[in-house]
UniProtKB/TrEMBL annotation:
Record-linked InterPro entries: DUF620
Protein name: Lipase
Domain of life: Eukaryota
Native species: Solanum tuberosum
Length: 373
C-alpha cells in the first residue's frame, strides 16, 4: 500500500500523506515508471473537480464506480447494534433455537478473545485494499461476461462505537465517504453534490465481516439457530435474524419500499469463529403512480479468512464478498448482475487516541439537504 506521495513540484519538498492509501496494483497502472506514476497521480488528484463530471463519458464512468462502491464497498446493515445486549441473559423463556444461538455466540466470543478483551476495545482504525469485479446486467439465464480487469482501491475505516464510524474508500479514481455520527448515517461519492441518507444510524457491513467481534455478537444476540451447513469444508451452525417491520419502514422512502432484509451468520463448530456472513434484501421502486414498480433483490455473502490476533482480539484479515443483483417486474425485463470483491486488511489498530465525536460529523451540505426533504 502506498501511503506517502512525494512532492513532484519540489524535489526537496515534504511528502504528502494520502487521505486513502492506494494499493500497489493501482499505483503501477498509472505509468511506466515511478516518477511518471506520481506525476499522473498528482494530475489526477488536481482534476477531481465537478466540471470534469459534465462529460457523458466521465459521468458514466463515475456512475458505474459509484454503483460498485455502494453495492459492494460500503453497504449498510438494517439493524442498530446495542452494546448493552448480552448473550448470557436467562434462556428459560427462550425457544430451543434461541437458546442454541446464545450458546453458539458464547463460543464465538471465546474464540475471538473473550469478553474482557472485546470490552477493552473502544475504537479502531483499519487500512485495507480491495479488488472489485462486476459483470454487465444480462437477461434471463444468459452467460455472464465478466470484465477482464479488476477495479483496485484502498480504504481507511474509523470507528469509536457501532454508531460512530467513518469510511473513506477510493477505487479507480472514484471516492466515497460514508459515516454515522450516532444520530444519522450518510453516504457521498465524489460525483455527488450532496450526501444522501435515509433512516436511523446503522452499522457498516464491513465491520461485520469479521472485523468487530463484539458488534457481531451483539447483532446476533436475538438470532435463532436454524440448522447446520458445510462452508469451505467446515461444519457450521447457521444463525438467522430478520429485520422487523418498523426498521424497514424507517429506511424506506416515498418512491421505494424495503420489503424484507434477512441476515445469516455461519459459525464454525470446530473453531467457533464466524466463517460466512450473508444477507438478502428485497425492495420495490415505483416508476409511476399506476404500476406496481420494479423489484430489486440483492443477495450478498462474505467468506472470512486469515483470522489473526491483534491486541488479544481475533479478527479476519482477508476474504471475498459475492453480490448478486436481480431486477424484475411488470415494467422491467428480468435482469441479473454479479459482483465480486476481494479484500485484505493491511493494518488494524485498536484504542486510537484523541478520536473525538467531532471526527464523525457529516459533510457540511448534509443539513442543507435534510432541510430540503
Amino acid at each position: 500500500m502506498r501511503i506517502l506521495c512525494p512532492n513532484v513540484d519540489k524535489e526537496d519538498g515534504l511528502e504528502t500523506v494520502l487521505e486513502v492509501p492506494i494499493p500497489d496494483e493501482m499505483f503501477k497502472s498509472m505509468g511506466s515508471n515511478a516518477a511518471l506514476r506520481w506525476q499522473n497521480m498528482a494530475t489526477w488528484m488536481k482534476a477531481q473537480t465537478s466540471d470534469k463530471w459534465s462529460s457523458p463519458i466521465v459521468a458514466a464512468r463515475y456512475n458505474e464506480l459509484s454503483f460498485l462502491l455502494y453495492m459492494v464497498g460500503s453497504p449498510l446493515i438494517p439493524f442498530q447494534i446495542q452494546l448493552g445486549q448480552s448473550v448470557n441473559r436467562p434462556v428459560k423463556h427462550s425457544s430451543i433455537e434461541a437458546s442454541t444461538a446464545k450458546y453458539i455466540l458464547q463460543q464465538y466470543i471465546a474464540a475471538t478473545g473473550g469478553q474482557p478483551a472485546l470490552n477493552a476495545v473502544n475504537s479502531m482504525c483499519v487500512i485495507g485494499h480491495v479488488k472489485i469485479t462486476g459483470s454487465d446486467f444480462h437477461q434471463g439465464d444468459q452467460s455472464v461476461k465478466v470484465r477482464k480487469s479488476d477495479e483496485n482501491g484502498g480504504f481507511v475505516l474509523w470507528q469509536k462505537n457501532p454508531d460512530l464510524w467513518c469510511l473513506e474508500l477510493l477505487i479507480s479514481g472514484c471516492k466515497v465517504i460514508s459515516g454515522s455520527n450516532g444520530k444519522i448515517s450518510w453516504r457521498q461519492s465524489s460525483n455527488q453534490i450532496r450526501p444522501i441518507s435515509k433512516g436511523p444510524p446503522r452499522p457498516l457491513r464491513r465491520f461485520l465481516q469479521g472485523l468487530d467481534p463484539r458488534s457481531i455478537a451483539n447483532l446476533f444476540a436475538n438470532a435463532v439457530c436454524i440448522g447446520e451447513k458445510i462452508i469451505n469444508e467446515e461444519d457450521c451452525f447457521i444463525l438467522k435474524l430478520d429485520t422487523n417491520q418498523s426498521a424497514l419502514e424507517a429506511q424506506s422512502g416515498p418512491n421505494y419500499e424495503i420489503l424484507h432484509h434477512t441476515i445469516w451468520g455461519y459459525f464454525s463448530q470446530r473453531s467457533g469463529l464466524m466463517i460466512k456472513f450473508e444477507d438478502s434484501r428485497l425492495l420495490t421502486v415505483k416508476t409511476s403512480r399506476d404500476d406496481e414498480g420494479v423489484f430489486w433483490e440483492t443477495s450478498t455473502e462474505s467468506v472470512m479468512e486469515d483470522y489473526k490476533h491483534v491486541e488479544g482480539v481475533n479478527v479476519a484479515h482477508s476474504g471475498k464478498t459475492f453480490v448478486t443483483v436481480f431486477r424484475y417486474g411488470e415494467q422491467s425485463a428480468n435482469h441479473k448482475r454479479q459482483l465480486e470483491e476481494r479484500w485484505k486488511i493491511e493494518e488494524v489498530d485498536f484504542n486510537v487516541g484523541r478520536l473525538t465525536t467531532d471526527f464523525f460529523m457529516p459533510p457540511s451540505d448534509f443539513d442543507k439537504e435534510r432541510a430540503r426533504v
